[in-house]
Design goal:
Among the domains are: 41 residues; 106 residues, Conserved hypothetical protein from pyrococcus furiosus pfu- 392566-001, ParB domain; 113 residues, no CATH class; 44 residues. It contains 20 helices and 16 strands. A five-stranded mixed beta sheet has the order 1-5-3-4-2. The N and C termini lie far apart (154 Å).
């Protein structure tokens, strides 16, 4: 089949189904379409916006048609300060006030923008704004079919609140352009701590911020992620928990801090966070809930600092003259088993310590006497008595004084107690350090017969006698052995 045959067949098919269109027909269709567009254009009415004009403040009155009745979260005073700082960002929506005969009075009522008007009134009362100051207004036609209540309701309901993430990022933009946390806080009537929190939220991994923006994560969960600034770790934790049944914020915090050490840990208490940071250690902090001082992010550094400080304390203890000092973060169970413990005498208080103790005791007894008739002590008095007890107990806990001869053969253990305070246990003697005692001399009494009775001689004398009178000594020894056997057998 050639090209002409194909065209002929197409013509026949078009005639058979009534689809044959001539050039004139095409022209008529195009003309009709243009006429339809013209008709539609004529049918659409142009929107006319209400005119704007500046109206003196003293010509404005608050309308009773304003639907807002409940006090908003931002006070009028704060809004007034914001207007004083940056000016009026949004015009007031007003309508002419009419007389009974329908003529305008020259006053304008405000159905939409009542809080702005009240803030302006506050500035006028403070004489920071003149009564005749022109106020930008949108003037609605008095004959409008739209009710004043309609305008007031629409202004409040059509408003879309800013997404929290947009606010966080806006704070970051302000800071990046040179504003301090305090300046941002002052501009938006929040505390610097709130500014820090919102900046912290904006610093979470971008991938997680997008999840939050799409409502895939709660604000509380996002807060939990701020505890660790490592974006890779944040994403890793989210990948683990987002499909898990346990998505609680505390679980997120636990996973993000599981390799860190709490500041309340006894090692951190002993070393001190300041010393740790001075050594180059970094901290993690939770800005949204109590964190007991945060977390120390470098456990290896902390352990090294603990060891070094314990060794330094051990050197101070060694100056006392102990033979050995054993240093350990944790002493094993039964660490003193098999060791002899020295008995020491409590050191007496110095004159200054005695005077301090007497003063504390006098205050304690005076408070007890003053409140003796009350069934329950006031909180501040109860707290003070507790402080006095603790200070007196500290003075009453006296160090022990040991015999210096014993100190030279004994040792001490240096460690930490469960609260992170230094603990030194002194005066333990190892078996190998016990003094060598001479074996007791054989005190066998030797009886020698001289015809005038018995005499007692020492082993040395016995040896001499054996050399001088061997026969007499042998008789005496046999006699002594016989006596021993008789005593042992009861005869």
């Amino acid at each position: 089949m050639n090209f002409l045959t194909a065209v002929k067949n197409d013509d026949e098919r078009e005639r058979s189904v009534g689809l044959r269109v001539t050039g004139n027909e095409i022209g008529r269709v195009a003309s009709d379409a243009r006429r339809g567009e013209d008709l539609m254009t004529k049918a659409v009415q142009k929107i006319t916006l209400s005119p704007s004009r500046d109206i003196p403040f003293d010509k404005l009155v608050l309308s009773q048609s304003n639907v807002r009745r409940i006090k908003a979260s931002v006070s009028v005073e704060e809004l007034a300060e914001d207007i004083a700082r940056r000016g009026l960002l949004q015009s007031l929506s007003v309508r002419p006030v009419l007389n009974d005969d329908g003529t305008e009075t020259g006053k304008f009522e405000i159905p939409a923008g009542g809080r702005r008007f009240q803030a302006l009134s506050f500035l006028v009362k403070q004489k920071r704004l003149a009564k005749t100051t022109p106020i930008p207004c949108i003037v609605r036609d008095a004959a409008s079919d739209i009710l004043a209540e309609d305008d007031s309701l629409a202004e409040n309901m059509q408003r879309v609140a800013l997404h929290p993430l947009d606010q966080f990022r806006a704070f970051v933009a302000l800071r990046d352009k040179g504003q301090s946390d305090a300046e941002i806080a002052a501009a938006f009537f929040v505390t610097p701590q709130i500014v820090k929190q919102r900046l912290k939220l904006a610093s979470v991994a971008p991938a997680l911020l997008e999840v939050y923006a799409e409502d895939g994560m709660t604000l509380e969960q996002l807060m939990a992620f701020t505890v660790n600034p490592d974006h890779a770790r944040q994403v890793q934790v989210w990948d683990v928990i987002h499909s898990s049944w346990n998505k609680e914020p505390f679980q997120i915090r636990r996973m993000l801090t599981e390799t860190s050490v709490r500041a309340s840990d006894r090692r951190a208490v002993f070393v001190g966070v300041e010393a740790y940071e001075a050594a180059g250690g970094t901290m993690l902090h939770d800005l949204f809930q109590g964190d007991d001082g945060g977390w120390l992010e470098d456990p290896a550094l902390l352990d090294r600092l603990v060891t070094e400080k314990l060794q330094a304390e051990a050197e101070t203890v060694a100056v006392e003259g102990w033979k050995w000092i054993e240093v350990a973060l944790d002493l094993p169970y039964g660490y003193s088993h098999g060791l002899r413990s020295l008995a020491g005498d409590p050191a007496p208080m110095t004159d200054d310590e005695g005077a301090a103790h007497a003063k504390l005791l006098a205050e304690y007894r005076a408070l007890e006497e003053e409140y003796a008739d009350q069934d329950e002590l006031p909180d501040e008095i109860d707290t003070r008595l507790g402080v006095l007890e603790a200070e007196m107990e500290k003075l009453e806990t006296r160090p022990l004084i040991f015999d210096q001869t014993e100190v030279g053969r004994a040792g001490a253990f240096v460690t930490l107690d469960r609260y992170g305070a230094l603990a030194v246990y002194r005066g333990y003697v190892r078996p190998e350090d016990e003094p060598v005692r001479r074996p007791r001399s054989m005190m066998v009494l030797i009886l020698r017969w001289r015809g005038r009775g018995m005499i007692v001689i020492s082993p040395m004398a016995m040896a001499v006698s054996l050399m001088s009178e061997p026969s007499s000594c042998r008789v005496a020894i046999r006699s002594e052995l016989t006596c021993r056997r008789m005593r042992m057998t009861g005869r």
